[in-house]
């Protein structure tokens, strides 16, 4: 395979193949995340073409967000059993199938089935769990930085494609924009097929930063039942208060980012007379700031107490959301919000993953984080639907933004209840 040849060639130059895994995962996550963020551009065109209400469209997006999260722990179990590459390719095939079928949809139930159920399952088979798995399996050192980079790809992909998709939609229609997304997914699938491997041992390596002095954790049995692995992890991890604190705070994280801002900021800007392409550019600017903010967060999470990082991230995000209604939606007010909020968009992920790995162990971290991420997407689904209802019933999105800001402040406070994590003690090798 090309990966074996490339790993050997890089090793001669003292470059670990783990960085290739980071690159191909970054590309796959970037494009897949663009699929998740795209419907925010299509809300208004769908309303105009089919007459569907904001609440009806938001209900499909809400189902997608929930399934996107609920699939995460089972996706982690699938990756443990069938391998990263096989699961990632299957996920991309499911997403492309749903997008292609949606080109012919005419009824709202078809929107719910395809954009809610099918795409929700497909995108949920990788989600942030893929990045967490790469970081914990392939890296002993620089783990926080890698998590930050791969998380940045997810958030940036959800936002960076929006101006381009908005321009294509405005000029050629939403179906052409969806076709463009399918082509990009095909490019990502080819890169995954050629370069992605399951574990460092597949290319004759140990994790980056591992000097080989400690035994590697044993992988799960190849025939481990998917449901048993996922539900057993939930049963065990739910006995820890740390799990529930991280679950609750990630619920707020999803509600205040993907479910609210990503889906509804563009329609809200239209309410204030801001054109769709300009509003999409605002989200893209957030993606640029988030790219750097999340990588910096990963760097910080390697060096500072992750509990205090979460306190500051949630607190500052809450203040930015509470500020938005008072920005008067001027150019300068929105630019300030985009910069401040963008730096903090999903900076919470690196410290959350590191706390998960420290508390529950590197080999099981992806399964536990999968359940925590389910909380993230439950929050996103609740906010996506709730904000749509707010716009339909009260003709305003502002109540949803005030509630999200207050929840972020509450999340900042409860992170301080996490006890200082104790490092997981690796088992000593048996005496000869």
Give a description of the structure.
- It contains 19 helices and no strands.
- With 432 residues, the chain is mainly alpha-helical.
- The chain has one domain: Growth Hormone, Chain: A, CATH 1.20.1250.20.
- Helix 3 crosses helix 13, helix 4 runs parallel beside helix 7 and helix 12 packs antiparallel against helix 19.
- The C terminus is likely disordered.
Short description:
The protein is mostly helical. It is 76% helix and 0% strand.
Determine and state the CATH class: Mainly Alpha
CATH architecture: Up-down Bundle
**What would the principal axes of the Cα set say about the shape?**
globular
Low-confidence stretches: 424-432
CATH-derived topology: Growth Hormone, Chain: A
Q: Over all CA atoms, what is the radius of gyration?
A: 21 Å
> For this structure, what is the CATH homologous superfamily?
MFS general substrate transporter like domains
The number of distinct helices, counting runs of at least 4 residues, comes to 19
Strand tally is: 0
Main beta sheet strand tally, sense and closure: none
Mean pLDDT: 80
User: Helix share of residues?
Assistant: over 70%
* Class of secondary structure makeup: mainly alpha
